[in-house]
């Protein structure tokens, strides 16, 4: 019985006959796919992080104690616990400043330990009567105002709704758990202002911090009057109140500064990926050209035996496609695994917000990586495939003698 000729089997046999050469070509596509997937997921997370920061920073201006700007940034971005206070009359002073429409205070308390965690965490007290910033987000979890003695726990805080949590010897009830933000809020506990002041007094009694005035707060969020530039208003506040140890920064400026850094980082990664794409094409194209020159006799013999020029091109392209398919799939799988393992480490180490991509994002970029990886080999082999199809078989045979 006559066996049907298969170009696919011939291409596979050619790959297996040269294991070292095939491994090198496969390795190039593997590394390319791994880098493409990891880089794309990282860029996606950076873009998502910038968007989330912009959405959460709804206040026009943040007022903090002089010298504590970096502390506020660490609390918001990384959730690093910090305790600090503005002068007791800050709210009254701000309401007298030109351009100020509305103010709402927040109280920051750093814990040393808690029943839920083996590490310090941040407590933020909000004034539910004046808040125009945080409550809209909190009410997605708890549609009513927080009662005294209740907390809303960030996504990374251990504990479910209805369970108890203890700070400074005071037992509080978890009213709900917030959705993941990829920011410092994930390691933060929110309480109302009465509960926050109770915890401050409890921490004083335990000697955790020195006694402070009951009217002192840590941060004041400011909304400016319509049509005014928050950056200019913030500058005027800082100028007028610097002698009181008060510093104002425009949220827009803060977000833009951070966004510029993140966009610069994302741009460098994009440039590296494009450069990697070009290098992969060049390396593979050179490799396939060298491979074709080494296989002149083999390909010429096929031509003499009746293979058409189109069939020779098909053999070369099939080999490239098979190698690229294996390389791109394995590269994407390893890249996906490495990203899942290294992601939490990067989030904890770097001072930038990196929300973990959803499974849909992982699937999308994995599929794109595999498709692009499958194409890079055949595209790189096109010049070599075209060259071999144009060569005269008998001349090629004589060149190898």
UniProtKB/TrEMBL annotation:
<dbReference type="GO" id="GO:0005886">
    <property type="term" value="C:plasma membrane"/>
</dbReference>
<comment type="similarity">
    <text>Belongs to the ABC-4 integral membrane protein family. HrtB subfamily.</text>
</comment>
<keyword id="KW-1003">Cell membrane</keyword>
<protein>
    <recommendedName>
        <fullName>Putative hemin transport system permease protein HrtB</fullName>
    </recommendedName>
</protein>
<dbReference type="InterPro" id="IPR003838">
    <property type="entry name" value="ABC3_permease_C"/>
</dbReference>
<feature type="transmembrane region" description="Helical">
    <location>
        <begin position="363"/>
        <end position="386"/>
    </location>
</feature>
<comment type="subunit">
    <text>The complex is composed of two ATP-binding proteins (HrtA), two transmembrane proteins (HrtB) and a solute-binding protein.</text>
</comment>
<comment type="function">
    <text>Part of the ABC transporter complex hrt involved in hemin import. Responsible for the translocation of the substrate across the membrane.</text>
</comment>
<feature type="transmembrane region" description="Helical">
    <location>
        <begin position="262"/>
        <end position="288"/>
    </location>
</feature>
<dbReference type="InterPro" id="IPR051125">
    <property type="entry name" value="ABC-4/HrtB_transporter"/>
</dbReference>
<dbReference type="Pfam" id="PF12704">
    <property type="entry name" value="MacB_PCD"/>
</dbReference>
<feature type="transmembrane region" description="Helical">
    <location>
        <begin position="320"/>
        <end position="343"/>
    </location>
</feature>
<keyword id="KW-0812">Transmembrane</keyword>
<dbReference type="InterPro" id="IPR025857">
    <property type="entry name" value="MacB_PCD"/>
</dbReference>
<feature type="domain" description="ABC3 transporter permease C-terminal">
    <location>
        <begin position="272"/>
        <end position="391"/>
    </location>
</feature>
<keyword id="KW-0472">Membrane</keyword>
<dbReference type="Pfam" id="PF02687">
    <property type="entry name" value="FtsX"/>
</dbReference>
<keyword id="KW-1133">Transmembrane helix</keyword>
<feature type="domain" description="MacB-like periplasmic core">
    <location>
        <begin position="34"/>
        <end position="237"/>
    </location>
</feature>
